[in-house]
Structures are given as C-alpha cells and as structure tokens.
Specification:
- The protein is about 5% helix and about 40% strand.
- It is mainly β.
- The protein has 3 domains: about 140 residues, L,D-transpeptidase catalytic domain-like, CATH 2.40.440.10; about 110 residues, no CATH class; about 55 residues, Roll (SH3 type barrels), CATH 2.30.30.
- The strands form 8 sheets. The chain has a 7-stranded mixed beta sheet, with no helix packed on it. Strands 3, 6, 10, 25, 26, 27 and 28 form a 7-stranded mixed beta sheet that branches. Strands 7-8-9 form a 3-stranded antiparallel beta sheet, with no helix packed on it.
- The longest helix is centred in the last third of the chain and has 10 residues.
- The protein is elongated.
- The chain starts with 12 loop residues before the first helix and ends in a 5-residue tail after the last strand.
Length: about 350
C-alpha cells in the first residue's frame, strides 16, 4: 500500500533560482581535530593530540536501535537451485514450479516439519532452502562532531606510524563495523593514513569516513549518499544528524550504477516486492522489501534483510540500508520532496 506523506513547502528564494542544484562547499583539506594539527609524517605524536584522544576516545554518537519494523517476526528463504517444485501440501501433489535462485527471497507464511508454505496453498521442501539473517548493523545519531569519524569496513591491524607495517600486537586492530574518530591525516604516496587512536594509524581503504563538513548545502532536512565512501548522512542544513553505511549500485557496471545528482523522494511503500532483470543471469525477486523511499524512477532508499555487506557496492542501483536504519529514516527524516544528493567525490 502506498503511504501518503504531508508535503512540506519551503519558499526559499535562492533555492528557487537554482532549482534543485546544491550550493557546493569545499571540504576541509585537513581531516582531523584542530588539536591534532601538529601531527605530520615526521611528527606522528604530540602531547596536544594525545590529550584530545584521551578526552574524546570515541565519536559522540548514539546507536540507532535495532528494529525490524514491518518485517519483525517474519522469515525469508532463498533456494540453492534455479527452480523449486511447489506442492499443494507437505508431501502432497506437485502443482507448479517457482523460479528461484540465490538472488530471490520468498516470505515464509508458515512451516510444517521440513516444509514451508511460501505462497497461499503452495508448499516447498526446505531441503535446498537457506533462511535469511537480517543484519544487526545500525547507524548512529550524532550528538556533536568536532572531527571526522569512520567505520572499519574490513577487519584489520593498525600501524604505529603512517605508512608503517601493520602490527596487531604492537598497535592494535579493528573489526568490521567498529567505529572510531579520525584525529589527524597524513598522506603517504597516493593514500591517506588516518590517526584513529594512540599509536594507531590505518590507511583510508580500510574505512568509510563521515566528514563534519557537508558536501553541499540545502535548507531544512536532506540526505547525502556518498558512493565513494558507501555511506549516508542525514543533514539538517549543514549539520550532520544521522549517519550509516549503505550499499549502492556497482560503479563499474553502468546499468546498475546509482545515479549521481540531486533528487526528490516522490514515492513511498512501507513493504512490498521488488524484482528486475527478468530473463538474465542478474534476475532478482524479493518478497516483502521494507521501507521503499523512491528518489529516482528506478532507485530507492530501502531496507534489506538478505545481506550484511554495508560499506561495499552491492545493489542493482538502489541505496541498500539495514532494516533498522531504513526504519529510522522512514519514521524520522524522509517525507515527500526530501532531497537526496548522490555524489562520488572524494573529500579533500
């Protein structure tokens, strides 16, 4: 069922003159805390920066509560086969075929032993079935932001110095989805190395970074989606309010790329199916996708229960979020005509 939203009309002369175009701002080239400005390649530690790290060891944020919302209590399965026989009852008569595959998930109505009803009066054996496990990952709401912060997108060991050898024993390590402040940044060769804790340096490719400076400026509430960083930030004007990891479309394949530009959210659907690429190896069919918020005719912000690959390209063009994060945006932020700014620029 389509969900109607109250349209919020903002009369802003400047924005009217430029239609949807954002006012670009230049991101800060020095990525870090002002108290760590003395950090360089040759001076990887200062007393002032040590004091900052001691006073602010973790980003000033709050985790978004885990909440599956409209799909809470439901099960979803995919099959390790392209076709699944359908029966009129468990161990009953075969009455049809379901086109399936690892990119197709069906909603389980009920189970009986090793059987699942996946369509009204249509049962399938669970022999080749796998149950989806929705991601436990959630983004954060931001209380205050004096420096960039980042999620680790890989398990990795850190280094004692920028560009130095990685050493879990001497420097420490981070696990995927760990959150950290970025106190200072030093460029070594073509890569930025970030100071993320006392004696802990990590290269930019291990991280998805959220900057305190917005990539553009719009009035009121909007969201920015960085296909470079694979993250989303909800802004109120220039102030970041919420941030999370996402999965956008594959940038190397044009037909699945999430289109850069400024869009307006125009269509809502609280829960319903998605499918596409019929007749090709990329065919997908997904039951009960939660929290559709369409901003481009084929692209939407929406929750996913079928993968936990946030921080990586993974979608067919949509912006995939954990169900909890999609629910937060649905409940708190996105209304009709909310702007979605999709961009691919590296900050700095």
């Amino acid at each position: 069922m389509l969900k109607s939203r109250t349209s919020v009309i903002l009369v802003i002369l400047l924005m009217s003159l430029v239609n949807l175009a954002p006012v670009h701002v230049t991101p800060a080239t020095a990525q870090g805390h002002p108290g760590c400005s003395g950090i360089t390649y040759n001076t990887p530690q200062t007393q002032e920066c040590d004091a900052v790290m001691a006073a602010q060891p973790y980003p000033d944020v709050e985790p978004i509560p885990y909440d599956l919302g409209v799909i809470a209590g439901q099960d979803f399965i995919y099959f390790d086969t392209d076709e699944v026989a359908l029966y009129d009852a468990p161990d009953g008569e075969e009455i049809g075929i379901l086109t399936a595959g690892i990119s197709s998930y069906v909603n389980v109505i009920q189970t009986s032993g090793d059987w699942a009803e996946i369509r009204p009066n249509r049962w399938a054996s669970l022999e080749n079935a796998n149950f989806a496990t929705p991601s436990m990952f959630t983004g954060v709401t931001i209380n205050r932001m004096e420096m960039p912060f980042a999620w680790a997108i890989y398990n990795h060991c850190t280094s004692l110095t920028p560009g130095g050898a990685r050493s879990c024993r001497q420097s420490g390590s981070f696990r995927r989805y760990d959150l950290m402040n970025i106190y200072a940044t030093v460029t070594v060769g073509e890569w930025d190395w970030h100071l993320v804790g006392p004696g802990q340096w990590t290269v930019q490719t291990n991280l998805s970074i959220v900057q305190p400076t917005s990539p553009a400026v719009f009035n009121w509430r909007w969201v920015g989606v960085s296909t470079y960083e694979q993250n989303l930030v909800a802004y109120e004007g220039e102030r970041p309010v919420m941030a999370t990891l996402v999965s956008t479309g594959d940038m190397d394949e044009e037909r699945w790329r999430t289109d850069a530009g400024v869009w307006k959210v125009e269509l809502f659907w609280d829960v319903g199916p998605m499918e596409g690429a019929a007749g090709s190896d990329d065919f997908y069919a997904l039951d009960q996708v939660p929290y559709h918020m369409y901003f481009n005719w084929r692209e939407a912000l929406h929750g996913v229960y079928w993968h936990d690959n946030f921080g990586y390209y993974w979608s067919h063009g949509c912006v995939n979020l954990s169900v909890s994060d999609a629910k937060w945006l649905w409940d708190n932020w996105i209304i009709e005509n909310t702007r979605v700014y999709v961009y691919d620029e590296k900050p700095g």
